[in-house]
Design goal:
The protein is an alpha+beta fold. It has three domains: about 60 residues, no CATH class; about 140 residues, no CATH class; about 90 residues, no CATH class. Helices cover about 45% and strands about 20% of the residues. The radius of gyration is 23 Å and the shape is flat.
Length: about 300
């Protein structure tokens, strides 16, 4: 918002972290500049923006091309119904002020290696505030430690596109057309869920997990991959865990060479990241679960 009205971000940060009167000053300044400045939409014409508000809190600031028919209520209603029809049940909800994610798994236990069991399912995420994409993807639950990972998206759609291409849907589409788009989206959600956790797809996931149990990753590559995702203290903690056989094996199976150095495979690395994810809530938890799944995909 500040960028659109040429207010320096450092000034915004100063006021938002200040006293109540400073935050009110920022609110007044934003309002005045939005009312009095003339904006030009990309593609021509005057620009208009939408504030998405919960009570008195602005949680989203989007252009008029925001796809409001990608609303969480209808999407998750269809997602839950589709999962229920396949007997997939919820195992986790990840919630923040801006996003909501629901993960469900099939009620079947798969032995990927002798004595090692997982459940496979599907996940749905959405933001009604333009803070993330609407996506549906595969998820895995390790039954030994409760670690949940997000593998890859089967469907992913942005709420906001280029205004000149979307032609300002929020302004020109009638309510009846929006209702039709909602119904079409719900139908697509059901199709994605049905095909996403079909037995053929589940077998592919199990094969991928088995491959990750044999594919090694060096500590240096792992650290490089996790830069910006895990803190330096968390990476140090993980390094210390690797020096303790008992703690390392509690995460997932791991081997050690003749020099007592850990031989890391992608399955162990994924579960290690998933263990850290359990410490967090909201967006950070989701980010780490996605990172954990990405490690499996490297197999």
């Amino acid at each position: 918002m500040a960028g659109e009205v040429q207010i320096p971000l450092t000034f915004v940060n100063t006021l938002t972290k200040g006293e109540d009167w400073e935050r009110r000053e920022l609110s007044d300044l934003l309002q005045e500049r939005f009312l009095k400045l003339n904006f030009k939409q990309r593609g021509g014409g005057s620009a208009r923006f939408i504030n998405l508000v919960v009570k008195n809190q602005v949680r989203g600031f989007v252009s008029r091309s925001f796809k409001r028919y990608l609303a969480s209520g209808p999407i998750f209603e269809s997602f839950i119904q589709a999962c229920a029809s396949l007997t997939a049940m919820p195992v986790e909800a990840v919630i923040s002020d801006l996003c909501f994610t629901l993960r469900c798994v099939l009620p079947h236990v798969y032995e990927v290696e002798r004595g090692k069991y997982v459940a496979v399912g599907i996940s749905c995420s959405n933001s009604d505030f333009g803070a993330g994409t609407f996506k549906i993807g595969l998820t895995v639950l390790n039954l030994q430690n409760g670690v949940i990972t997000y593998l890859n998206s089967l469907k992913e759609e942005r709420h906001v596109g280029a205004a000149e291409k979307d032609n300002g849907y929020s302004d020109i589409l009638s309510d009846s057309t929006i209702e039709k788009k909602i119904a079409a989206t719900q139908s697509e959600v059901r199709d994605v869920v049905t095909s996403g956790i079909h037995m053929d797809r589940v077998e592919e996931v199990l094969d991928l997990i088995r491959a990750s149990m044999t594919k090694e990753i060096s500590w240096a590559k792992f650290v490089s991959y996790m830069q910006g995702k895990l803190s330096s203290d968390e990476l140090k903690e993980l390094g210390d865990i690797l020096k303790d056989r008992q703690k390392s094996e509690a995460i997932a199976d791991i081997k050690y060479d003749v020099d007592d150095m850990a031989i890391i495979n992608l399955w162990w690395a994924s579960n290690a990241v998933g263990e850290f994810a359990k410490r967090y809530e909201g967006d950070k938890k989701d980010e780490l679960q996605v990172a954990a799944g990405s490690l499996i995909l490297r197999a």
